[in-house]
Every structure is written in structure tokens, then in C-alpha cells.
Amino acid sequence: MHLLRPVPLALALAALLPLAACQPASAPEGAAATAATPVEDAVARPSRQYSIEEFVESVGVSGASFSPDESRILFSSNKAGVWNAYTMPVAGGDWTPVTDSTTRNSYAVAYFPNDERVLVTRDNDGDELDHLFVIEPDGTEKDLTPGANLKAAMVGFSQDGAHFYVVTNERDPRFFDLYRYAADGYARERVFTNDAGLQPEAVSPDGRWLALGKSNSTNDSDLFVVKLADGSQTRVSEHEGQAQFSAQAFSPDGEWLYYTANDAGEFSELRRVNLSSWEHEPVQRADWDIVAATLSHGGKYLAMVVNDDGSARVELFDTASGEQVALPKLPAGEIRGLRIADSEDRIAFYLNGDRQPSDLYVVDLDGGEPRQLTTSLNPAIEPADLVESSVVRFKSFDGMEIPNILWKPHQATAENKVPALVWVHGGPGGQTTRAHSATIQYLANHGYVVLGINNRGSSGYGKTFFAADDGKHGREPLWDTLEAKKYLQSLDYVDPDRIGIIGGSYGGYMVLSALAFKPGEFKVGVDIFGVSNWVRTLESIPPYWESFREALYQEIGNPETQRDFLVETSPLFHADKIDVPLMVLQGANDPRVIKPESDDIVAAVRKSGVPVEYVVFDDEGHGFSKKKNQIEGYGRILAFLDTYLKGDGVPASPATGTGESGGTGEDAPADDASAG
Fold first, then answer.
1. Does the chain have fewer CB atoms within 10 Å around its N or its C terminus?
2. Following CA atoms 41, 43, 44, 48 in sequence, which dihedral angle do they give, to the nearest 10 degrees?
3. Distance between terminal CA atoms of the chain?
């Protein structure tokens, strides 16, 4: 998750989303190799240290939408250096570009249900003002959401494919209204005017119902259903105390709304409510949060994702019987991003693991063998040179147990102690999870232990843990990172005097806080577009975050009534205490953490004569997606760490590239589910 991320728009007909962002991956087009598996042999690992270019050479793939006849599949990839949309046969074969930019990202959304047209979305170099485009079979394209300074998102198609639904904030920049478009000709009408500032989450396939959410606080939200014919509204989240409710999917006949809620315990379970009687029924429970669920086009299958102790567990059920449907057993990772074809005869999914960047598969549900459509990992990289992560825990200063994901380099031993990094995710309520991470694998390959801390306030470990940082930023969550440092110092293969801190977005704020509020604890800090001044950040949030602005103020602080507190907890006003080398990376178009946040902290720390390296990317926003920038940014992070954490402060030869700008992953590795 990214800093202060708004509640995502749930797609009524969406398939399950993985816990992570899209991954880089490299493959000959249409390759059908077997999944990468660790090769354990007598070779000392790593057999060699790979360059950043070799890690970024892997080609990212994400998303999946079947064509109407299910002979082809639509997906996104960054093989051209930026993200574009492609199609390929479900049997494997050559990729056909749908978009072919070398400078601007486009992401595949879906095929039209009844023909070969394709929907894609794009913004302007990371400004997050997404528009929705249709691309005709002849390659011509049309912006379906024209206009300046608006943000649009696809919600879903009607059951018969004759209409589709889109939300935009064109009428009022604070609120998203719902529009129904005709698939034939694109005529549209506004079917819901969102004057109350709720967050649209799902539309029923029959077009009768709209589900909307309302964030009351970090750990409390409500769920409403509106009957679009007359605008009547029903609250379906009656509860006492703090609880989160989230719409997941309507049944194809429009009779039921499936939703998740944690009012009955620490974790979210899946339920459904009948839209005639308003009676509720349990559907599925797990020992962890059920974080996503969807129904197949005809309602035959229910698929869901469980956030299982930092791993994504996808489960598929027969809706009528409730019995679980076996998914393919595959090596080297977890199934993610499951998509069910409209025929309900086949599924597409990704396989992802520590040593396995996401690869796209298709399998028939009649028991056929999975077909691997991509081969992600750069063939120059030996999978056995990468490392497996592990879940570890330590007790913090007050006895609270803190879960973490640990990456240990092959070369780290008690005889060969290595430097280490505390990696802090974004959010604040993000989570570092087990997944392939190009950035962390790059650092581990070059001899750095990485501990991805899930400090108090992280999602995935129950609502009490999630709320434990409210109003405490710059204090208790930060103190958890100091305990993480102590934990690293207890490992016999870590050099106890060479421990740094790194993070992006809210994690970048934690980096700056550690250096400003606890000087002397960490040897270096790497801040990837982190908040330095909460007052300015909270006063400059995008207008379309209005639906949860008050909840955000309760989480962080209200700039109108708690200004002194926000100044006290903002590193910028204490920058004179930062006395160790600092690296800052920033996207010029970032709407969440604006560029002055980084400009000011860099200037303030430089006044003290402290070494500061500042990297700005003019064509990125809150997350750096372009390969040229990833090469420059990741390479410079390693060079900085080699100089000031591993080395003696004398710059070594650059790891790669030259110049003053480049790119890095988002607030977490470019290829992972970790932080954001």
C-alpha cells in the first residue's frame, strides 16, 4: 500500500487482486518453460553478484482478461521499458501489442465481453489522474473520460455486456459519481450523484444496486447499498464499536451482496446480505483476514484471498455446495491474481515466489495441466542465487510481538558478518509480505540482510494491532524499528555496527523520523518519497480523498486543531538532529507526497554539512515504474549503501549509470507485495 492510499474502488466483476503491485519479469514472448525452481548444488551461493541492469531486465507482467471466445488473454507488461497492454493466445505464442508507447504507461483493464475491443487506463507520468480509453480492433483509441484534472476508474460491465460503469470526479473534484456507458456508441448517463462523499465500491451486474463505503476512522467503516432506480439507501453494516466493512461482489442475479467484515473478531470474514430481506449469512471464515473475494460470471465459483501471516493464499469454492475446488500444485511460489473466464471453464493466475517473479498461467478446470505463458526471471540470473524469505518475530519495548519478513544473503555467516537494513513499508497501514522483490533480492545478492518490519499499525495481523499506531506516529511505531535493529544485532551473521534504515512513502517518513528523533541509532537512511512535514502533506492531499479525510486526520492528526502535535512529529522541524548520511528519492509528479516534502528535508540536512544524495525523476509520481529510472535509482541506492553503510564513506565506482536522475521501485520493491 502507498502512503495515505484511499479506499480502493472495488470492481463489481473484478477478479481477485494479489496483495502486491505488478512485478517485473523477463521472458521470450510466449515462452512455456517450467517454473523456476531452486537448484541446490555444491556451488557457493551466490555464484556471482548481478548488476541492477540484470535484475531490471526481467519483464513485468500483470493482470488478465480473457477475450470473448477465450482464445486470447489481455495483460500488461513493461518489456518495452514502460507498461503497455498486450494480448497473446491462451495456448501460448507471440505477444501482440495493444499499446506501444516507449514513454508513457498504459495498463490493461479488460476486453469487452462481446467483441475484441479493449479498455486501458493511463495517467500523466504518475499524477494519478487516470483516464479510461477504449482501443478498437484497428488500433484507434478514444478517451472515454476526457477533461482536465479529473480521475476516472472502471467499475465493471453489466451481465449482458451491453453497458459498463465508470466513476469520475468531473462534477466535483472531491466526489466520485457513477456513470453508465453504452457499450455500443459510448453514450453515457450519470446514474448516481455522490453528494454525500461516499466511496463507490461495486455495481450489481443487473445494474440495480450500487455498494458504497464510508471511512469513519482507521478501524471503522460503514457499508451502504443504494437502489439506483430511486436512490433509496440502506446501511448494511449495523455494528457496535470499531469494525471495518467492505463490499466484495454482487451475485450475478443481483440478489446478494458479498462483503467482508471484522465486527465479530480480530479478522475479516466473508458474508453476504440478501437485498430483498436484508438478512445476512456467513459464507467463509479463516484464521486470518479474508482480503478479497469475487464470484465468477455465472456465479458457479467463489474465489477469495486470505492474508495468511504475510502470504497470499488463494482459495476457490463451488458456490452451490461450498466445497473447495483444488487449484494446481505448482513449485516455487503462490497463486495470485486469479481470474475466472466467463465460461467458468478455465482460470488464469500468476505464480509468484521469493525466487519466482510473477508468471502467467492458464488452466482448464476440467483437470487439465496448467499452461505457463510467460517466463519472468531474466535467464541470466540463476534462481538458486536468490534467497528465500522467512517470517520472524520479536518482542518490542512493551512486549508487543512484531512480525517481520527476513531476507538473509547466502554469503552471510558468523564468520562473515554483513550489514543489514530495516525496511519499513508504506501506508501507514501497509504490510511487508513474502513475495518476489527485485530490489530486496538485489540488495541481498550484494550482501545486505533485509528485515521487512511490520511495525504496529500494519495490516494483516488483526484490528487491534492495526489500530495500535493511531495518533502515535513518530513514537511507538518508530520505537518498534529500534527494537528491529536490536533483533538484527542479535543475529550472529549481522555486523552490529552497520545497520541502516530504508523505506518509501510512510516508510520514508519513518526513515526521517528515525534519523531526526533517534539520532545515532542507524548508520544511514534511504528515504523514498517520504513525508517530512505532516502539516503540509495533510493540507495538500488530493481533493478526491475527501471521503476519508476525517478518518485520515484521526489517524495522523488534524492540521487545524493539532498543528503543534504535527510539527512535533514532523522530521523537517528537527532536521538539525540528522547527522548520518541520507539518500532521498522523489517523483516530481507525486500527488501524495509532493516534491517540496523532499526538497525541504534535503536542504535542511545539507545545512548541517551531512552527506545527502538527492535523486528526482521528472516523469514519475508516487512509485517509479519506468525501467530506465529503476536502473538508475536501484543502482544508486546500492552505491550509496556500499559507500556509507558497508564502506568507509569514500564513494566507490558507481554501480551503474550516470547523471542526476533515475528511478527506483515504489515505496517497496518493484516486484513485490511488501510495502507501499
1. N
2. -120
3. 4
Task: Please name the amino acid found at residue 260.
Answer: T
Q: Are 273 and 280 in contact (CB under 8 A)?
A: yes
Cell of 562: 493539532
Structure confidence at residue 295 (pLDDT): 98
- Give the sign of the dihedral formed by CA 100, CA 104, CA 107, CA 111: negative
Average pLDDT estimate for 345-369: 94
What are 579's three cell numbers? 547527522
* Nearest-angstrom CA–CA distance, 7 and 201: 9
324 versus 36: the higher-pLDDT residue is 324
Q: Copy the grid coordinates of residue 113.
A: 465481453
Residue 40 reports pLDDT greater than 70: no
Residue carrying the nine cell digits 512484531? 402
Lookup: cell for 595? 516534491
Instruction: Report the pLDDT averaged over residues 248-252.
Output: 98
Q: Find cell 475479516 and name the residue.
A: 268
**What is the dotted CATH code of the domain comprising 387-645?**
3.40.50.1820
Task: Label residue 42 by pLDDT band (50, 70, 90).
Answer: low
Q: Give the mean pLDDT of 24-44.
A: 42
Cα three-residue angle 65-338-451, rounded to 5 degrees: 125
C-alpha distances in Å from residue 584, one per residue of 455, 519, 610, 615, 633: 22, 17, 13, 6, 10
90 within 8 A of 70, measured Cβ to Cβ:
yes
Enumerate the domain spans of the chain: 146-197, 387-645
**pLDDT at residue 159 tops 80:** yes
Q: Locate 619 and state its grid cell.
A: 516523469
The region that residue 385 occupies, defined by phi over 0 for left and psi between -120 and 50 for alpha, beta otherwise, is alpha
Q: Are 316 and 302 in contact (CB under 8 A)?
A: yes
Q: Is the pLDDT of residue 424 over 80?
A: yes
- Grade residue 668 by pLDDT with cuts at 50, 70 and 90: very low
Is the pLDDT score of 153 beyond 60?
A: yes
Q: What does the alpha-carbon distance between residue 501 and residue 521 come to, in Å, rounded to a whole number? A: 10
Q: Is 144 left (phi over 0), alpha (psi -120 to 50) or beta?
A: alpha
Round to whole Å and give the CA distance between 360 and 62: 8
Q: Which residue shows C-alpha cell 517509479?
A: 624
d(CA 463, CA 288): 11
d(Cα 439, Cα 525) in Å, to the nearest integer? 16
Q: Which residues pair with 616 in a beta bridge?
A: 586
Residue 5 has pLDDT above 60, yes or no: no
Question: Is the confidence at residue 319, as pLDDT, over 70?
Answer: yes
Q: How far apart are CA 411 and CA 407, in angstroms?
A: 12
Cell 444496486, located at residue:
209
What letter represents residue 66's amino acid?
F
